[in-house]
Amino acid sequence: MSRTQLLEIEPIRNLKFRHLWALGVGAVIGDGIFLLIGEGIAVAGPSAIIAYIIAGLFQFFLMMALAELAIGMPSAGGMAVWVERFMGKWWGFLSGFAFAAGWVIGGGGISMALGTITSWYFPQLTSGIWTTLFAIIFVTAFALLNILGTAIAARTQLYLVLILTVGMSLFAIIGVKDVHPANFSEWFPHGASGFFSAIPMGTYAYLGAISIVTAGAETVNRKDLPKALIWSSVTFILIYSAAQVVLQGIIPWNEVTMDSSPFTEAANVVFGYAGAFIINFVAWIAAATCILMGTFYTASRIFYAQARRGYLPKFFGYLHPKTRTPVYGIIFIWACSVIFIIIGAFSPNLIYVEFSLQLTLAWVVSWTLAVIAAMLYRKHAKEEVMALPWKQWFYPLFPILGLIGMVIIFYGTFLNTPMTLIRGLVWMVALFIFYKLYSEKRVVEEKIKKAN
């Protein structure tokens, strides 16, 4: 690997507003909406609708809080660059790595969900190996699309997201005729505890949409970043909330299972088997878009930016001279995803429960640091902020609401799972040791090289 390839080749700026919007909408985690929503409904009943709306609003608050940083400091490293500037190198490294690692962890569970959704079309294939095989095939295909170029992956994402939004909108509109008001008679069947337990599940589904901020280095016009952050939030909150109302109005909350997508079962009522066939495909798209531009695109860009700054091994910072994509980072993420898929085949609870909790913890840490950096940006770079072509409304309302959301999510997720926090602390301590032994030294070396 030559130094020219590592340091002088830059990503191609070919992402426009429509691509960024599709990245945000598509990064809403597919298995969180189409499969794990069944668990949210089971613990909260009809109040899961409110819980998921609150989770979506927390996401919107975060989007608004971070939009100024996204436009003022556009970078593939996103939050890692922002937090490093205002809080120091270690905290920047932790923020960026935690978000990227969350996406890599999520890639296993989302890929398993993709295999499960695909298997629905082949009821004669009863062996679980087919779910695993489908998951590996598709995760490999999405890795190749990312390697071939950002423009190809982004266009694919755009087309898939358009199909997704149209399909869910039609379900929400046409399905109203089959809604039974009696299904909403008992809003809080398990009380406040059940309601608050569902909020983190909605957060798991929605929080990936912030991935837009890692597209700064490949955006044609940086003004499109805050617009995409806002409008992607509005899109998925409106569409998914409307669809969830119809879903829970059709299927009683105590009859919802996780054996298949509840949306598929509801679509079977609304449209018949053909409708279930279509909505299951929409669910497939939701999972696919998460992997395509969430797991592979977002994580590889953060790893790339951190390698360029000396925090990670150099191979993560390599860009293919023709496609300008971080090939080795994508391959690394693919290998991790395949390993997680295989682990999930033998221990699905490890992937769906423990790994999902660690993903949530990693993202809560990452975005709490990012919101703090956004507030420090306002405090320490006032002239820079005032010169921005876009500024957030009603500051400091959205950063405060975003932090309140993080506290609620943290409380609801980890109150009854203290061991999850201990295991999370273990990997953060291990990451700190790696930083002290490797990253600090590399950062100094990179600075010396650039100076010479």
UniProtKB/TrEMBL annotation:
<keyword id="KW-0472">Membrane</keyword>
<feature type="transmembrane region" description="Helical">
    <location>
        <begin position="420"/>
        <end position="438"/>
    </location>
</feature>
<dbReference type="InterPro" id="IPR004841">
    <property type="entry name" value="AA-permease/SLC12A_dom"/>
</dbReference>
<feature type="transmembrane region" description="Helical">
    <location>
        <begin position="196"/>
        <end position="217"/>
    </location>
</feature>
<feature type="transmembrane region" description="Helical">
    <location>
        <begin position="158"/>
        <end position="176"/>
    </location>
</feature>
<feature type="transmembrane region" description="Helical">
    <location>
        <begin position="393"/>
        <end position="414"/>
    </location>
</feature>
<feature type="domain" description="Amino acid permease/ SLC12A">
    <location>
        <begin position="19"/>
        <end position="438"/>
    </location>
</feature>
<feature type="transmembrane region" description="Helical">
    <location>
        <begin position="49"/>
        <end position="71"/>
    </location>
</feature>
<feature type="transmembrane region" description="Helical">
    <location>
        <begin position="325"/>
        <end position="347"/>
    </location>
</feature>
<feature type="transmembrane region" description="Helical">
    <location>
        <begin position="128"/>
        <end position="151"/>
    </location>
</feature>
<feature type="transmembrane region" description="Helical">
    <location>
        <begin position="229"/>
        <end position="251"/>
    </location>
</feature>
<dbReference type="GO" id="GO:0055085">
    <property type="term" value="P:transmembrane transport"/>
</dbReference>
<keyword id="KW-0813">Transport</keyword>
<dbReference type="Pfam" id="PF00324">
    <property type="entry name" value="AA_permease"/>
</dbReference>
<feature type="transmembrane region" description="Helical">
    <location>
        <begin position="91"/>
        <end position="122"/>
    </location>
</feature>
<feature type="transmembrane region" description="Helical">
    <location>
        <begin position="20"/>
        <end position="43"/>
    </location>
</feature>
<feature type="transmembrane region" description="Helical">
    <location>
        <begin position="359"/>
        <end position="377"/>
    </location>
</feature>
<protein>
    <submittedName>
        <fullName>D-serine/D-alanine/glycine transporter/ethanolamine permease</fullName>
    </submittedName>
</protein>
<dbReference type="InterPro" id="IPR050367">
    <property type="entry name" value="APC_superfamily"/>
</dbReference>
<keyword id="KW-0812">Transmembrane</keyword>
<feature type="transmembrane region" description="Helical">
    <location>
        <begin position="271"/>
        <end position="304"/>
    </location>
</feature>
<dbReference type="GO" id="GO:0016020">
    <property type="term" value="C:membrane"/>
</dbReference>
<dbReference type="InterPro" id="IPR004840">
    <property type="entry name" value="Amino_acid_permease_CS"/>
</dbReference>
<dbReference type="GO" id="GO:0006865">
    <property type="term" value="P:amino acid transport"/>
</dbReference>
<keyword id="KW-1133">Transmembrane helix</keyword>
